[in-house]
Amino acid sequence: MNARVIRKIRDGRGRFMGMDVLILHTVGRLSGQERETPVAWFPDGGDSWLVVASGGAKRHPDWHLNLVGRPEQAAVELPGRDVVPVSPEVLDGAEREDAWRRVAAAQPRIEKYQRKSTRAYPVIRLTRK
């Protein structure tokens, strides 16, 4: 499934299930291998994007663990564009709450998933380097 979505993004079609998606480039924190993961993104100004480490699992997704484990090697690829290095910042406090409100307003489905989860979904700002 990920490979199909990645192909669509590279072909310039950056929507999946009604959400804008990008390809998040990370490096495995343990393996050191390059990883590519399609993730939904939300606008946060001209040179930054918000992503949410959601999902049905009881732990954060592997891409999130890789992102915080090797933040200096993170990059994003938007539909039909080049890979852009980014600096990830896990938001907390009032800044996270503000970002979460914007994400939930844009995509209520994510808030519904959050209510069913026992963990708080991290909200990460990816800012172009």
Task: Report a brief summary of the structure.
The chain is built from 4 helices and 8 strands; from the N terminus they run αβββββαββααβ.
Would you identify the CATH H-level superfamily? Electron Transport, Fmn-binding Protein, Chain A
The CATH topology comes to: Pnp Oxidase, Chain A
Instruction: Tell me roughly what share of residues is in helical segments.
Output: 25-40%
User: How many DSSP-defined strands?
Assistant: 8
| Tally of separate domains | 1
Number of helices: 4
CATH architecture: Roll
**What would CATH call the class?**
Mainly Beta
- The structural class is alpha+beta
Biggest beta-sheet profile? 8 strands, antiparallel
N to C succession of SSEs: HEEEEEHEEHHE
Features:
alpha+beta; 33% strand; 8 strands; 129 residues; Pnp Oxidase, Chain A; 31% helix
Furnish the topology, listing elements before pairings.
Layout: H1 2-10, E1 15-16, E2 19-27, E3 34-40, E4 42-43, E5 48-52, H2 62-69, E6 75-77, E7 83-90, H3 93-106, H4 108-116, E8 123-128
Antiparallel strand pairs: 1-2, 2-3, 2-6, 4-5, 5-8, 6-7, 7-8
Helix pairs in contact: 3-4
Description:
There is one protein chain. This protein is an alpha+beta fold and 129 residues long. The protein has a single domain (2-128), classed as Electron Transport, Fmn-binding Protein, Chain A (Pnp Oxidase, Chain A), CATH 2.30.110.10. The protein contains 4 helices and 8 strands; from the N terminus they run H-E-E-E-E-E-H-E-E-H-H-E. The chain has helices at 2-10, 62-69, 93-106, 108-116; strands spanning 15-16, 19-27, 34-40, 42-43, 48-52, 75-77, 83-90, 123-128. Strands 1, 2, 3, 4, 5, 6, 7 and 8 form an 8-stranded antiparallel β-sheet that branches. A hairpin with a 5-residue loop joins strand 6 and strand 7. Helix 3 (93-106) crosses helix 4 (108-116). The longest helix has 14 residues, at 93-106. The radius of gyration is 14 Å and the shape is globular. The protein starts with a helix and ends with a strand. The relative contact order is 0.21. The model has no long low-confidence stretch (mean pLDDT 94).
